[in-house]
Amino acid sequence: MAKKNKTLVYGSIGLVVLIAIIVGAAVVLYTPTPEGEKVTVMMGFIPLIQYAPFYVAVDQGYYADEGLNVSITYTSEGSMGVIKQLAANNVQFGYAGADSVIISRSKDIPVVSIYNLEPKNLFEIASKKEKNITNPENLVRKKVAIAGFGGSVYAMDRMILQEAGVDYNNVEFVAVGAGLISSLVADKVDATSVHLAQKVILDNMDVDTNILWAKDYSNFIGSYHVVTSEQISGDNPELVKKFVKATKRGLEYAATHPNETADIYIKFNPDAAKDRNLQLAIWNAFVEEVWSPEQLDKVGQPFTDTQWEEAQDILYELGMIDKKTDVSKFYTNEFISK
Question: What are 55-73's pLDDT values in tens digits?
Fold first, then answer.
């Protein structure tokens, strides 16, 4: 019976993801409405507990302390959808991957990374233990599930293979949309491309897995940043400084108050209440991997040209960008508190 209940839980998660992909629209859920300058920050997917630093900063009044009235909105188009809305001046801030910033700059979209909130690459390729896939070479002539072609997950998979000296053309990538977990469980593929949250879900389903971590091949390229437009960064530095300061406070509180963080997240995504224990497990996994007390000082470290150059070189070699551009324009360290 327990297995059946778990199936229902993960089936509902898949349905929510599928609906988000089909609708493809930005939505705004619970947001307190204090007085202050109206600001919108966009996440690259449906409400997820890994966005907790932003939820906590709203709920605990950290943005309000800075005179900001922050709303959180979403897109089903991933980091590129976030950057698209930044470029159109529809939002002031976003949460996006380093790879998407590089791709956008290659298309002359003036987006800027301002704070490295998630400095580790938490993408991975997961496979069942019995498949005995313990290194990238074992993926040759195997089927690997991806959400779709062209996104960050697909880029990370090819990066792992390329950096390991494996020709990614010898691996069969299968686009499965929201079925990354179900396709692996049902043995429709040999491996699946996931992020840390999906690994926790697989563990919770008692699926024994081997993991190929993307961070073992390139860490920075899969990091996630607070981003804004060049225009806002240049014309309204005080706004950016306030937003970064409050978001950092949100992270510090969320990382040290996991149970309360799970409850705050549920305010923004009430449907998650039925899966509270799973959500808490996911949050604890993120804290352990990235935001534990001994790692918090690594969050928001200054960006370097070398980080961006190495990541840009990888994307260029993968054919994800058709030109290289000046990496010094990809970021600013102006708003990192000393």
Answer: 999 999 999 999 999 999 9
